Structure formats: structure tokens, C-alpha cells
Amino acid sequence: MHRGRPDRRQDGGAVDEGEPLARLETKRPGATGGEGGADVTSRYFAIKVGVPEDPVTGAAHVQLVPFWAARLGRDRLVCRQASPRGGTLWCALREGRVRMAGTAVLYARGEVFLPGG
């Protein structure tokens, strides 16, 4: 992850950053910093695995929250993902685990079958 400021386009449209990001060695680059009242502002790109920009990434915040909690000296953080759709996560670091709350969008439904079940 790189500390930085997200590109805040006036029109609110998607930012075409695919070509420069696709040239990076990493498969999943991201950027973090604080902006607009949030403790952490982030963006997450996974172009090499078919995701131009993830709107709100809980999995990324599992890594971001411990880093920023230690850096800011707090265990409760407001995290904003600055994608075109965007979203806010209210996160807490408790006993080495990240708890988060926010609004979710259902994008898939499925069933999991466990062995012996």
C-alpha cells in the first residue's frame, strides 16, 4: 500500500488509471491517506485479476485498519473508500481482529457445502 491522496475528479466518473497501474509489478495496488473527515481514505485496484477498481473492499481494510490504528494511536477509525461508487466503513480493532460496519450491496448469492455435512 502506498500513502497518497485519491484523485477526486469533479465529474464523479471513473478515473481511467488502468494503464499505469497495469504496469506495476503488484497485482493489487492501493493508496491510502486521510481525507474529507475520514481517518483513512483508500482506493483499491486489481486490474491484473480483472477488477479495474473495487468499490469498497472489506478485505483491504483488514490490513489497513491495524496499520493506521497503530499510526494514529486509536482503535476506532472511520474509513472511506474513494471509488466512484464509494462507501464508508466504521472500523474497530479489538484483540487483533478488525470489526467493521457499513452499508453493503448484495452482488452474489450461493451455497457452501462442507465435507461430512
Produce a short descriptive summary.
The chain is α/β, with parallel strands linked by helices. It contains two helices and six strands.
Distance between the termini: 40 Å
Named CATH topology: Diaminopimelate Epimerase, Chain A, domain 1
Computed structural class: alpha/beta
Low-confidence spans? 1-18
User: Looking across the biggest beta sheet, what order are the strands in?
Assistant: 1-2-3-4-5-6
Helix percent band: 10-25%
The run of helices and strands is EHEEHEEE
Number of DSSP strands?
Answer: 6
Q: Mean pLDDT score, rounded? A: 76
Number of helices: 2
Instruction: Please summarize the sheet with the most strands.
Output: 6 strands, mixed
- Our Rg estimate from Cα atoms comes to 16 Å
* CATH class bucket: Alpha Beta
Q: Total domains, how many?
A: 1
Strand % is: 25-35%
| Shape type | globular
Fourth-level CATH superfamily: Diaminopimelate Epimerase, Chain A, domain 1
| CATH architecture level-2 label | Roll
Q: What would the keywords be for this entry?
A:
6-stranded mixed β-sheet, 17% helix, disordered N terminus, 117 residues, alpha/beta, 6 strands, Diaminopimelate Epimerase, Chain A, domain 1, 2 helices
Structural write-up:
- By secondary structure, the protein is an alpha/beta fold.
- It has a single domain (about 1-100), classed as Diaminopimelate Epimerase, Chain A, domain 1.
- It is built from 2 helices and 6 strands, in the order βαββαβββ.
- Strands 1-2-3-4-5-6 form a 6-stranded mixed β-sheet.
- The chain is globular and about 45 Å long.
- Residues about 1-20 have low confidence and may be disordered.
